[in-house]
Amino acid sequence: MTNDMNPLRLLTVILCVAVCSHALAQVQEMDKELSNLAEKLAAPIKDRSKKKVAVIDFTDLEGGSSELGKYIAEQLTVNLVLTKRDFQRFLSKHPRAQAEIDRVAADRSAMNTRDIAAGPA
Fold first, then answer.
1. Number of domains within the chain
2. pLDDT tens digit string along 2-28?
3. What is the span of the domain harbouring residue 50?
């Protein structure tokens, strides 16, 4: 390999970093919007005294499932759990979302046990 390839490699690396950082910014923006959507959805669900929430995969116009639709459903489920609106039951077929649901449920259970053990304030 010759030294005249180094500027080409440097340019390639710079372009890759630029493209990757732009993609990361878009993902972060989408996650922020999904968090906002979860907050907007949680309030009316809670106002109607609903305690069970299920989020299914988003589909394309032909009803087919895509990785993006699965990701959006998973993120929306996790964000709804994190709104802490006292929903009693979440249903998810996505392992990461289910793990977050289980973690939050365990945290709430531990908090309730501490409150009961502490007695009235």
1. 1
2. 555 687 787 788 877 777 776 677 778
3. 3-118
